[in-house]
């Protein structure tokens, strides 16, 4: 009732609702009733909010399910505190699936959706006292009944390891559903390890007589799920992998003769990786069927998993694959050490300082850094210089995007040096210094003994997109080859007694191939023609080189009598005629322009910028090349004058008269006619100036064919310059180029991995090269200062490299295991890629990071034979401890877990006691008994729910 004072204070305008708000209820006299009221208030609030509002108020998503959420509230009873938890799904209209992998244990055990759990706030979270558990369950049941809620409620009882629950659910007017689950952890009766005994256990819960249960006919609904697991790796294999990874010089000698999974992977030359796929779990589910006797269950235990309706496969990955610990030896771990060495390289002026006893910081270096032993150095140098003499196809090695990184090609000498440096004595600066000094000594030995430089081309142009050390080594290889050729020519000249005088040609005819070979020397045409080029530089419409005519016509073009003697000619140039004699103008063989490395080009550009780009200065820089071309032109055209050379070499500096022939077609038409001779025209202004440098060079140039000229590239001088550069290279300049080359070579090595063309992996590799090129771009100038920001950028780059390296090893492993079923390989890798993406720092900011990978993939019928073959029969050593206690074997493997659901359903149609669950009509059938059984070879868990009307 309401108090009189409060009644008097009410105004006429106040509503009855306000009066009720001030009503004091003295019926909640006991603490027990207040406890029920508190639970009821919490439940009413959750019911009023609904799932949508609960999500907005901070409902917590469960890690194993994206659809199940949890809210909780604390309540007190006397001096004890309890926690009430409400579990709900976002979509309540779906039917409960028996074997949904995202179900909560209580949902799977009892076939429910949303539910309450009440537990004491203690360390164990369970109720050990049976009367207390019953009292808690009664309080929740009364509170839910007052709210007209049909939620089931549970209390966790007994020891936590038993996972035991008791529960109750109000299902309507008179029906009540009770739940109970418990677990047998040891000494499971043999009878309960088989389907027949489990079936009889279930029937015993509702059988009405004590007759033999095997003779009773009961329509029991039955469904089953069995989980199989592939054999684990032997301990010896794992120890072998770890031992090989811990060996500092593992790349140079394989003390472990056991076959590893990645023996044919491209990285196996440097390290052996742990197989990221440790095994697979196969989940086979049998569709629901009706069983009427225990004999049927006995026969069903002999069924093969191939008769199951559905197969799902779950890969089991190594914990190191997702681990943040960086104790595994891979390219990424060694690249981090190389970055640390770069950071220390700024502390000395020369590489010798890091190993010299006179270095002030050498004591600290010696105490913290180990140098490789002489035997290790010998093995590395032998691999670099003596086992790789054959030149690989450098142009085809590496990824298509690797050229954007200013390093050395994968198979080149410097790239192999950098890869070896990663694995020698933990890649510290002292070890690198020792190895570099020995490396340069070997290079000098190749130079002094005129031995080919291994793993480097001895011809071709220098690739300026590579690092400077690689350019220098390429230059040295070319110099060694030319030095060898000069030595061979010198020896041939000394040992030859043949007359080298020029023969007199009959009738003064020019162009006979045999005569040319005698004149220029047979060795010139055998060895020197190929590197020489026709000197038709600055091509124009009026110039035709020897490559624009057929070889057989080049000789026959000049058939006119002549008293001149030509040397080193490549044939006439169209119908061009000499100015002073009625003879065709011949193009000579010329020497190639001298090769230059990047620093040589930069020096030349700096000189041009400092002294100007005048015509005479440019000619001065090109004096040797220009003089060589003029000498060759004079030898091929003895009657030529300076103007003839200009018309051929620089046609832009020859100005025709207005009536002159301006096209090659007219010259060919009038070939042989005197009407077009002498050619009419004049030199350009710059060429006709007094004191012109080109004319001075022309006057001084002797008539010598290219084969008799001094080479433009002095191999002795340039070779010594290369060696001086290598021997005096600053430590930080060496380490900068090593870092770029090591990243590029490591990425190129990984890119050779076969992974079945997985799209995500292909894209990730391409993104890696873009990231590498962007981060390493400051190193192209070779002028970094070694500041902390640069080093941190490189360390972050190592982290990116590590993620890609992990994913690539996984892709390679999956590709091998699912070689015959690429669809399954792609599906599994896609699942893990999505799972791993947030760990790479590329996922969305509000994306929750899943702790464990549990994504399963369905196995199609045509893929089952491949998956089944993974379950190889266990050997005697693998199965001597196992005793087959369950049926449904797969290639000799019993299930590691077998889950069964028995149920009995009764019809309640037209029964006025039926619960109004379905707004569309009365429920037609109700599950009166349900038993969930989960058994392994060591334990058994049973969960029973019974619906009654008491």
Automatic annotation (TrEMBL):
* Annotated stretches, region: Disordered: 239-260, 653-685
Pfam families listed in its UniProt record = Rab3-GTPase_cat
Ordered alphabetically, the record's keywords are:
Cytoplasm, GTPase activation
Source domain of life: Eukaryota
Q: What is this protein called?
A: Rab3 GTPase-activating protein catalytic subunit
Q: Taking the first listed entry, what is the main subcellular location of this protein, grouped into a coarse class?
A: cytoplasm
Q: Where in the cell is it found?
A: Cytoplasm
What InterPro entries does the record point to?
Rab3GAP1, Rab3GAP1_conserved
